[in-house]
Amino acid sequence: MNEPDAVNEDLVALLADVFADKCTTETVEAAEGGWSQDLWASLDELGLTAVGVDEEAGGSGGGLRDALTIVRVAAGYAAPVPLAHTLVVGPESRRRFELPHRPGATAVALYGRLAVEETAEGGVVRGSIESVPYARQAQNLIVVAENGDQDVAVELDASVLSWTERTNVAGEPRADAAISVHVDQVAHGIAPAGTRETVRDAEALAQSWALVGAMQKVGELVTTYTRQREQFGRPLSSFQAVKQLAAVVAGEISVATAAASAAAMHFELGGASRFPVAAARVRCAAAVAPVSRHAHQLHGAIGYTREYPLHQFTRRLWAWRDEGRTQRQWTQLAGERVLAAGAENLWASIAS
Amino acid sequence: MDRTMTAEEALLVEEPLAALRQEVREFVAEQLAQGRFEPAVNSWMTGFSREFAREVGRRGWIGMTWPVEYGGHGRTAAERFVVMEELLAAGAPVSAYWAGDRQVGPALLRNGTEEQKRRFLPGLASGEILFCLGLSEADSGSDLASVRTAATKQADGSWTISGAKLWTSGAHHKDFMLTLCRSLPGSSRQDGLSQFIVDLHAPGVTIRPVYLSNGSHHFNEVILEDVRVEGDMLLGVEHGGWSQVTAELADERSGPERYMSTVALIKAFAESSDEDVADRIAVTGSLASQLWAMRTLSQDVVASVHQGKRPSLLAATAKDIGTTFEQESVEMIRQVLRRPPATGSRLQVLLDEALNHSPGFTIRGGTTQVLRSIIAKQVGM
């Protein structure tokens, strides 16, 4: 697979060691419905849960691309831990809303409601949030919401709330809660309107990289399986019909990888156009159907059994492509963004 | 954990690119204002204009990356990418010089003699000399190694070529054909092939039209009957043509023309006021996202070629996914139309054109099936 040029090879090598050891198929299986505390502790010990945050601020150093690389590699092991939010979405929220860094697993709610009410006991933060990834397992909870002509973020101890936990199609924990806490219990920050949208973009970016990581693993499984499995006296990989489908899988992964990588650059540069992040999110999500469909087709019945690991990745792909916002919502948003300067400037908006 | 800028980033953020892009856009606007062309789909293959080629050449936009001493302009691959994509986005008639700029020039630079470079490159770069490619034959389509057109070496060092090339795009407008021939009698497959520069006005050359399904003249059969070619028109290594041709494929397969053939239609659709607004936004969002993503992949290939690599997996992938997208784009637009577009409207004209050309998207330059075989092999199958 094509690797982004600037990938930090030492980091990738370290990650491969850690995940191969601490995040086996069995780890993922055992964690379904919850998370792997052991894996989290191992990552935490190595400082890998605070990459992308400056050392002076209490992090491990490194940049956004390093954080995204961890998210991508972790997705290739179906790691049942909240890395996307802890490494990317949480820090982005804290930076934008000037909240101090907090160590520990972090969950971020970006699509909920929040309001501050004055009561006899002082200010009370009320709101409701839904489908927050790993909210019950996380130590910190950040809620980002709109509040009049500004956006607001609050950060609190996630265990303060009483969570209703569900799982997504991949068996990953997602939780809802009603918020009603005294303002003294939260750190809060305000930022100009539109900041929440930027943080949602950061989430979309992390999702794109996670989709790529899981799809790359699916691609590897396809190659390995079709070379090993023999039918009619020869490996499946020697059949033209099989090769043609496997090539579609590889091609979709290549284009998704290129798009996710370029979107990270656009996000970091902070240009005026937010179309690239939406476009990459759409393209990565759109790759999921052909990649997962063909991968399962090529694996036959074994591919959707519990014992064979393919489902640990395809089920996550099915979940992630529509979380936060669905593929359709991102497509609509990509359209709005690319047409913002007028349809007559469509090409200029794509190639800017 | 310092990070350095990726090649792709360097491609995108390089300062002079914005100015160059603006320059091309102004040129396009001026040409449109003067009625020099109508934006068309597939214009890099079927939009022919010698005058337009000269105009582009005059501005230094052909052979941009070639050395200045051969009439090139010593510019970067990134700058060339900007010019290509802006002209494609405009649906401009660039087919006259496209193959020369993309393949023939680089092939001459890689394999040509000093004399050949001096003779052809300046004219190619100015848009005065136009080349087409003579590869396929009646019995050699996807299986290019089976070519039979024979080049026979004469006692005086010249060659006599006999055979017929098929599907030669624009041969009836062009001056020369870079022709793949079997130069070693009795050789088979990849062995014993050589490339020759054949003057299309030489005695013994007959160009016969092969009309497209809509009646337009684009393809030709080029019949060569005892055509005399001087010894100095052999390109590169005698009997070493196969590796030369395959080296051209990354250039041929990964450029922006492999996903931009329908951009004129996509723009017309996005601008159409006749469609449901929500549908138009969503479909434009989907098409634009795919275009943008293909573009990132194509830029990766350009960057990789620029670093001296030969990214055959990415190049094959770019063409497979890109041309499949071109076909899908036509279908996506068609499926969302609320009513038949008015006859003679830009949308109707471009949609019909796109439909007529769309079968070719996934055939030319290597069929989807051949590309997928290459991709599968590259990923270890």
Give a structural overview.
The complex is a heterodimer of chains A (352) and B (381). By secondary structure, chain A is of the alpha+beta class. Helix content of chain A is 49%, strand content 18%. Chain A contains 11 helices and 10 strands. Chain A has helices spanning 9-22, 25-31, 37-45, 64-75, 83-97, 195-228, 240-269, 275-299, 310-320, 327-338, 346-350, and strands at residues 106-109, 113-119, 122-133, 140-147, 150-157, 163-167, 173-182, 187-192, 230-231, 234-235. In chain A, a hairpin with a 2-residue loop joins strand 9 and strand 10 (234-235). In chain A, helix 5 packs antiparallel against helix 6 (195-228) and helix 6 packs antiparallel against helix 9 (310-320). Chain B has 3 domains: 7-129, Butyryl-Coa Dehydrogenase, subunit A, domain 1, CATH 1.10.540; 133-240, Butyryl-CoA Dehydrogenase, subunit A, domain 2, CATH 2.40.110; 254-378, Butyryl-CoA Dehydrogenase, subunit A, domain 3 (Up-down Bundle). Helices cover 49% and strands 14% of the residues of chain B. Chain B contains 13 helices and 8 strands. In chain B, a hairpin with a 5-residue loop joins strand 2 (150-153) and strand 3. In chain B, helix 2 (16-33) packs parallel to helix 5 (77-89) and helix 8 packs across helix 11. The radius of gyration of chain B is 21 Å and the shape is globular. Residues 1-5 of chain B have low confidence and may be disordered. Chains A and B meet through helix 6, helix 7, helix 8, helix 10 and helix 11 of A and helix 1, helix 5, helix 9, helix 10 and helix 11 of B.
